[in-house]
Amino acid sequence: MNPKRRQMISQGLQSMGSLGVLYLLLTESELVQANSGAKLLGVRIWPSEDYTRITLESDKALPISHQLLTGPDRLVVDIDGLELNPTLKDLVAKVKPNDPYVAQIRVGQFQPTVVRLVFDLKEAVKPQLFTLEPIAEYQYRLIFDLYPTNPPDPLMQLVKESARKEKLLAEEQAKNPKGSAAEDDPIAAFAKKDTAPSKKGGSSTTQQSPLSPPSATTANTQRIPFKRLITVALDPGHGGEDPGAIGARGSHEKNIVLSIAKRLKSKIDQEDSMRPFLTRDGDYFVPLHRRVFKARQVEADLFISIHADAFIQPHAKGASVFALSQQGATSSAARWMANKENASDLIGGINIKTKDKQVAHLLLDMSTTAQINDSLRVGNSVLRNIGNFAPLHKNRVEQAGFAVLKAPDIPSILIETAFISNPQEEKRLNDETYQERIADAILAGIKDYFAKNPPMARRS
Fold first, then answer.
1. How far is residue 164's CA from residue 420's CA, in Å, rounded to a whole number?
2. CA 405, CA 366: separation in Å to the nearest integer?
3. Which of 1, 290, 314, 322 is 20 to 30 A from 352, comparing alpha carbons?
4. What does the alpha-carbon distance between residue 74 and residue 146 come to, in Å, rounded to a whole number?
5. Taking Cα atoms as reference points, which of 413, 424, 423 lies closest to residue 386?
6. Phi-psi region at 349: left, alpha or beta (left = phi > 0; alpha = psi -120 to 50)
7. What is the value of pTM for the model shown?
8. Environment class of residue 285 by beta-carbon count within 10 Å: exposed (0-12), middle (13-18) or buried (19+)?
9. At 326, is the pLDDT very low, low, confident or very high (cuts 50, 70, 90)?
């Protein structure tokens, strides 16, 4: 006990008696407890091309200081009120060789109550360090987001990946400089003759009326000859710190929807007139406004957010499709769903202080009636095709204030592929055949929509 505290107790004996001494001793105990080290509950690393996130979860908020060093590039972080322990040492082993930005992490006891972390970097970064308050299943989280100083350009990457398709499309235009049939009559151009080998090895020709919408089968076997490639942004919900809904068998929504999105991407890759873009291609968190921003960066013609429903009652079932609403939700269930999905930022963890004000404004009030009307059209097309083989929760597109659907110039829908909270549907969501059929139905709906609503000239 320090001399000052001993003097206080001595004075307490003289002036307050034994009760005063007891009070002072309790105060001393509380001070010791308050100054004791925080308990580290877990460490996690989420690498991606966008950024690498490091998370330290603890039972108390952790004060930190940091500095960037060059020659070589390093980030040095000092954490106060923490002692080196096996959990923290695990952080070293969690660094993956393919992490774009972190080469290795070194940890040590810098001072008796200060732990130092040194991040050896592969390139210069712009770090964001912040603390998240307890929410959902998490306690306090200390977040290190390491962003590259020169972030990759998603549009340029997409152009490189689709260079072959662009070349073929240019060659087609050179052969037909007066314009493709799709611009004169997109439905007639889409509903061309489809020739496929018969079971006997010959060929059979089926003719579809140009006045009738193409079937799901036709949509999957015919291409749409437009003057430019259609860009479809696929948005697997949740990711990283945000698992999304969790089924009774432990399935995480974030993993299922990423699998479905990758299957759909593969199918779109096979379409001569389309190219896909994933807002996330791995297990990492992307804030809602960044998903919208990334879709606009690649000048997407369509935005599709993919999810797996959850509800408080395990018997709820069926797929749903949602569009944005400017005038309130079309049902209490739609409102509940929008509120749940919009909470993704809170669980996944965003740095409020650095949120792009322009993008935040975009998400608040820049959606348009035209965008919503187009979203309803593509939503109905997708819902109809899903309904060809799967149960539907509602047989119409519902609307609510989903933040991720608020791109002012991109038709946007959110698909709840099934209820992960329903044990039977959770099993179905994990089935590869079901995932393939969902992806096929979404693609058929996309093609149905663009057959009737060909994309306009590229925005400048």
1. 39
2. 11
3. 322
4. 11
5. 413
6. left
7. 0.82
8. buried
9. confident
pLDDT digits (tens, 9 = 90+) for 11-51: 654 554 544 443 444 344 343 344 457 899 999 999 999 99
The reported pLDDT for the residue numbered 10 is 56
Gap between the Cα atoms of 214 and 448, Å rounded: 6
The dihedral formed by the CA atoms of 12, 17, 23 and 26, expressed in degrees to the nearest 10: 90
CA 344 to chain centre: 9
The neighbour count for residue 223, using CB atoms within 10 Å, is 15
Facing residues of 120 across strands?
A: 74, 104
DSSP per-residue codes, 101-157: SEEEEEEEEEETTEEEEEEEESS-EEEEEEEE--BTTB-EEEEEEEEESS---HHHH
Mean pLDDT of the chain: 83
First to last CA, the chain: 73
Residue 313 tokens, joined: 């009652």
- Residue written as token pair 């109550």: 113
| Token couple for 11 | 């004075």
| Distance from C-alpha of 459 to C-alpha of 424, rounded to nearest angstrom | 45
pLDDT at 385: 98
